[in-house]
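Holo model, zinc ion. Inputs:
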Amino acid sequence: MWRCKQVSHALFQHHHWDLPVHKRMGLKLHIALCVFCGRFQRQVMAMQDMARKYRLMEEEDQTGETVRLSAEARDRLRKTLGSTPGR
Ligand SMILES: [Zn+2]
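Output:
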């Protein structure tokens, strides 16, 4: 029988799907029955999903294009912020 600490460790290893079938079934059963591990699994999945989306956003942003402000926009920004042109 899986213990909560073993479940949390297995979920963080990201290789729990490579476990033998009987161990994977025990893990799934524990997650289904344990309120804390079920909640923890959903949080881990949400974090993995966010990390995956962030990585995709960064890959899409690797186009080499740089967003630059026009000279007018820079001047307006300087006036608004009250800074002197330095760089
Ligand atoms: Zn548990």
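Residues 35-60 form the longest helix (26 residues). Residues 11 and 44 are 7 Å apart (CA to CA).
Archived with the compound record.
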